[in-house]
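=== Structure Prediction Worksheet ===
Name of assembly: unnamed complex
Input type: mixed (protein and possibly other molecules)
Chain count: two
Listed entries:
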Amino acid sequence: MTFAIRVNGGTHTVDVDDDTPLLWVLRDVLGMTGTKFGCGKALCGACTVHMDGAPVRSCITPVDSVGSSEITTIEAIGGTPAGAKIQKAWLDDVVPQCGYCQSGQIMSAAALLARNPHPTDADIDDAMSGNICRCGTYSRIREAIKLAAQSSKQGRTP
Amino acid sequence: MVSLSLPYGRCEAETAGTIAFAPNAFIRIGGDGEIVLTMPYVEMGQGTYTSIPMLIAEELEVDLKQVRLESAPPNEKLYANPLLGIQATGNSNAIRGAWKPLREAGATARTMLVLAAAKRWNVDPVSCRAQSGAVLHTPTWRSLKYGELAAAAAQIPVPANVALKRPEDFTLIGTPAKRLDTPAKVNGAAIYGIDVRLPGMKIATLAQSPVFGGHVKSVDDRAAKAVKGVSQIVRLDDAVAVVADHMGAAKKGLEALVIEWDGGPHASLTTEEIFAELEKATLSSGAVAQNIGDVEKAEASAASKVEAIYQVPFLAHAPMEPVNCTVHVKEGGCEIWVGTQAIARAQAAAANAAGIPPEKVAVHNHYLGGGFGRRLESDYVARAVQIAQHVNGPVKVVWTREEDIQHDMYRPAFLDRLSAGLDEKGMPIFWRHRFAGSSIIARYLPPAFKDGLDPDTTEGAIDLTYALPNLHVEYLRVEPPGVPTAFWRSVGPSHNVFVTESFMDELAAAAKQDPVVYRRALLGNSPRAKAVLELAAEKAGWGDPLPERVGRGVSLQFVFASYMAHVAEVEVSKEGVVRVRRVVCAVDCGTVVNPDTVRAQIQSAVIFGITAALYGNITLKNGRVEQNNFDDYKMVRMNEAPAIEVHIVKNSEPPGGMGEAGTSAIAPAVTNAIFAATGKRLRKLPVDTIALKQAT
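=== Predicted Assembly ===
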């Protein structure tokens, strides 16, 4: 079947089975390899993308469920205010090690920051515990989210 | 801007035109001033692509932002790890192996550039110095950039001996330089093996015999072939692969296959049988790994004795990037794209599988989405070649997570028998340790397995930091039938340090002494070990009161040439659920190249070790691995991650290894803390929450 999907501001037409996970459409059909495969069962979060701003696991999102939703991937998340802040905090705190899970971590963190500019530790636990990092960068991820939130605070009246 | 490139092999024609100066295998300087450093160690998260350039840049006198990195091609002569003798990144020895040769490589190039400049100006080389990619003649403040000197430097004979910088003159080594690979790892640009894309490339996934050593009996592939996008089914003796236009189709095709397997001789194997074999083996004596004094004699005079049996399970590596390899088999050769810790081994494995000489195999290495020892192996390279031989054009073979877990090569299971005798004051007068399990070295580096022993399997069981007057350690090599074993982050010590540091804690408990005080009393001969123990205890507030069912546990080790002490603070719920609240680590790893990387590696290794201690357990039933994915092979997640503090002891000893030490040291700190919190001694990993449930 043919599907026209909106990804990072552009429209792409793909011819795949309707139950094909969005992950493989992005990676193998459209060549956007920044979104990663980790488990195929929504257990690790490596494949996280945004669908109309909300984080979803692309490995279990069938392409026919995307419809006219706007998909944003790691390649374009820097174009959103929250995504840019998260990426900068990741650089400042030197978060990634092997880096493989970090696309998913950044997508989850950017979605968190966009809907909650000043997350508590419990908010961070809730938003980020679906993302596994085998290199164990959790403490730096937590610090970096707080650093990004701090940068949002600047200019606010106390 | 730093440029990191992992090109598809070095193009000879291209380099010949632009490279003016290449004094050794690690440095190339172009006439245009471009400085390319060839990285003999791979980047799998441990920071080598920053710390190794730091060594070269320090001596070459260039800024890190001036260099471009390339991964080394397979070449055991030029790029072997001097501590392993093969071209591999592992055993926490990249910095140890590179420390002298790569600084010398930088110093050699710098010396030749200075000589070239002095010659050009007709001045004494002593009046010139290198700085920020240029040579300065300080009396006249003339300066020439390296690019301008490259062609002339190439004419200077390579000096045999060069002066290395004095540590007090270091401007880069010892600083928390930012990682060079971060920018590409926050925007999706970093290319891992799994991200390789080639014109006309197909994607394949596979099912391998669920029983190790089994075979394909029959395949019904009619439904799989009907899946849109599936182009081909490849049947091998012990695996079936589905080749498709994309992984979604390949996976759907795989699910549609009906495969009948012949399990072969291991079809009824269970983990229980393997441990029974190990236990039986330890009833007989093994190869003597270390003997100090006379244990038999000391035993006769012991006031009391402590005995215990410990065991650790098989563990999977589960790197976040499932194993994969892309292969293009062509007339008379093949080309592979992969992320490997051992590129020359990958090349050899591909050549062997294809039946061609290694020089006919071109290998392109990439960033590794986690290694942890899994990518020291080349089984997945050989497998990809076997499949690619049936495919016209390039094919990327990607394992599902289920295949990755069920067809890993596992950290071996071990069983350990220990006994010790205490004197009237409770101090140990003998220590006896006998253990059985797989030797990975015997398969991986056969010449290093001698007289029934190898240096990896025994590391952490011998050469303890404690002054033990009578010690006897024996090892028995027992291979689990059919189950492949491999190096796993913190290798031999991942098992031995858990056992020895738990047993030391048992001795302190038997002597009714504080675990830190007890250990300290045995460290008269090891001031560096004593220093890290005291530092960790002090920073952790050792001895400060804690709530009920919360305890602190300590561990101390000297492995990978680094000293480390952990204090773990652990809470055990009434239901038996263990939460590691805080970990304080003190480390003495000698000279520190990048302190931020040392911190990052310990933070990483601690989480890796806690994951294994709390959850890691690969089990077999009917010859099949019972775990599948991250739901039944669990990982520590954000909500369970403890606060981790790292305290670095400063000194100028040679560097020690840092990638793995934090992992081996954490399991006993956690279980010793559980003992402190509950009085329950855990002698078996992973932690058994049922045993920790509070009696009501």
